[in-house]
Amino acid sequence: MATTTTKLMTFAEFEQLPNPPGYRYELHHGELVKVPFPDFAHIRAQWQLRRLLESAAGSAGVVDKEIPYRPLPEHEGWCADVAYVSKQRWDNIDRYLMGAPELVIEVLSPSNTATEMLDKRNVCLENGSREFCIVDTDHRQVEVSTPDGHTITYKSGQEIPLFFGGRLPVDSIFIAAEG
């Protein structure tokens, strides 16, 4: 029985691709992944998370949306919905953040699959993330995973302790979505 092998795309090949209108590409394990632009509820959650975490982080790190990073040296080019990167790492970025940000937050979209989120979580936690969060805007909850294998789901009325200091009330993430 013959098998067909497909060549994995390198990051250098990935860098040469144009980003067509209406979506962007990411590189996951050498495979090109088409990522649609987010809807407004997704964007609103990203904006609110960035604002809240930026205030909590102060000068200890940088928080932003759509931070590109390379969790592994080859065959990977990802973008975090929201991420925190320590000031020291931020100041040492040349072209790309190598490894995963210390905090990666993914806001669930209809295009996300459970397998994809599990893979992202595992790769990030094995390559530099101290926490990986999945924000579910429909259920108004946040799942926080750490490298030691623990996962806690925070819901309305609860606060998420931040490893860089402070606490994030779950309800504050979704306030902007109510207006």
What does this entry look like structurally?
The chain is α+β, with helices and mostly antiparallel strands and 179 residues long. The protein has one domain: Alpha-Beta Complex (tt1808, chain A), CATH 3.90.1570. Helices cover 28% and strands 33% of the residues. It has five helices and eleven strands. The strands form three sheets. The protein has a seven-stranded mixed sheet with strand order 5-3-4-6-7-8-9, sandwiched between helices. Strand 3 and strand 4 form a beta hairpin. Helix 2 packs across helix 5. The model has no long low-confidence stretch (mean pLDDT 91).
Strand and helix order: HEEHEEHEEHEEEEEH
**Residue-averaged pLDDT:** 91
Give the total of beta strands. Answer: 11
Query: Tell me, what is the CATH class?
Result: Alpha Beta
Q: Report the C-alpha radius of gyration, rounded.
A: 17 Å
Note the gap between the termini.
60 Å
Helical proportion, percent range = 25-40%
Structural class: alpha+beta
Q: Would you identify the CATH H-level superfamily?
A: tt1808, chain A
Strand content: 25-35%
**How is the largest sheet built, in terms of strand order?**
5-3-4-6-7-8-9
List low-confidence stretches. Answer: none
Shape: globular
Query: Major sheet, described briefly?
Result: 7 strands, mixed
CATH topology: tt1808, chain A
Number of domains: 1
Q: How does CATH name the architecture?
A: Alpha-Beta Complex
